[in-house]
Design brief:
With 251 residues, the chain is an alpha+beta fold. 35% of the residues lie in helices and 24% in strands. The strands form three sheets. The chain has a six-stranded mixed β-sheet. The protein has a five-stranded mixed β-sheet with strand order 1-2-3-4-5, with helices on one face. Strands 10-11 form a two-stranded antiparallel ribbon. It is globular, with a radius of gyration of 18 Å. It binds zinc ion.
Length: 251
C-alpha cells in the first residue's frame, strides 16, 4: 500500500460539495472540533448521529467552500470559531494544535498541526495548501511564497497524517505522470487511488513521508524533476512555479 495508510479513528471525514472534505476530530469524551465546514447539513447530521459535541471550528482560509457552514453550526452549537492569523498553539480538549502560517493559495492560508497524543500520530489539516499529490493554486501570492510555506509543513515528521481540503488526488497523480511518465511509485499510487475510488473510499489520509516521495510539487528541488523539465540550473521556486503553471494548463 503506497500510502502506508494508518487507520486513524480520531478523524471523521465528511465528503461535501462534490470534491471538498470536511473533518471532525475527536478531542475528548464525545467532543470534536471541525475543520473547514463548507456546508452545515452534513456536519450537523454527523454530530447528531454520533452524539458529538462540537466545541470549535478551525478555518484554513476564507474561501466560501471552506466556510459556508460556519454561521449555522455556530448558531446551533455555540462553538468557537478560530481562523488563526499568527503562529500559535491552540488547546482544544485534550489536543494541542499548532497553527502554521502557510500563505500561497491565499494570503490568510494556515495549516493546523495536531501534535501527537498518546497512541495517535500527529495530524495535519492543510486546507488548500497541500493536497495529496498536489498543492493549491496561487491565487494571492507568489510561487516563492507558496514554496516557502510548503517547506514548513514537509519538515513535520514523516508519519504525520495529511488531511487536505479537496479530493484532487487522481488528477494530481495523472499530472505527475506527464512530468515523469516512468515513475513507478507514482504509477503504483495512482492504481491504488483508482481502486479506492471504485470502492467509494475517501483518498485520505496520506502522510508527510509519502507526500515527500510522490508529490511532484514538493520535489521541485529534486534534480530528477529539474532535469525532466530541462531546468537543471533553475532555482527550486522557479521549478515549482513551472510545475504550477503546467498544472493550471492540465486542469
Ligand atoms: Zn481555497
Amino acid at each position: 500500500m503506497p500510502f502506508n495508510k494508518t487507520e486513524e479513528n480520531s478523524v471523521i471525514t465528511i465528503p461535501a460539495l462534490g470534491d471538498n472534505y470536511i473533518y471532525l476530530c475527536k478531542c475528548g469524551d464525545n467532543q470534536v472540533f471541525a475543520v473547514d465546514p463548507g456546508e452545515a447539513s452534513s456536519v450537523w447530521e454527523t454530530l447528531e448521529n454520533q452524539h458529538f459535541n462540537l466545541v470549535t471550528i478551525l478555518v484554513t482560509h476564507h474561501h466560501y467552500d471552506h466556510t459556508a457552514g460556519i454561521d449555522e453550526l455556530k448558531k446551533k452549537t455555540g462553538c468557537n470559531v478560530i481562523a488563526a492569523n499568527k503562529a500559535l498553539i491552540i488547546h482544544i480538549g485534550n489536543r494541542n494544535i499548532q497553527a502554521i502560517l502557510t500563505p500561497g493559495h491565499t494570503q490568510d492560508s494556515v495549516c493546523y498541526y495536531v501534535q501527537p497524543y498518546e497512541k495517535h500520530t500527529g495530524l495535519l489539516f492543510t486546507g488548500d495548501t497541500l493536497f495529496i499529490g498536489g498543492c493549491g493554486r496561487l491565487n494571492e501570492c507568489s510561487a516563492q511564497t507558496m514554496w516557502n510555506s510548503l517547506q514548513k509543513i514537509v519538515a513535520l515528521p514523516d508519519d504525520t497524517l495529511v488531511y487536505p481540503g479537496h479530493n484532487y488526488t487522481e488528477e494530481n497523480y495523472e499530472f505527475a505522470l506527464t512530468i515523469e511518465p516512468n515513475n513507478n511509485l507514482v504509477k503504483k499510487t495512482l492504481q491504488t487511488i483508482e481502486d479506492w475510488k471504485k470502492r467509494g473510499k475517501p483518498t485520505v489520509p496520506s502522510n508527510i513521508g509519502h507526500e515527500r516521495a510522490t508529490n511532484v510539487f514538493l520535489r521541485a528541488d529534486d534534480p530528477e524533476i529539474k532535469s525532466a523539465l530541462n531546468m537543471s540550473n533553475s532555482t527550486d521556486s522557479d521549478v515549482f512555479a513551472e510545475l504550477r503553471r503546467r498544472k493550471n494548463l492540465f486542469g
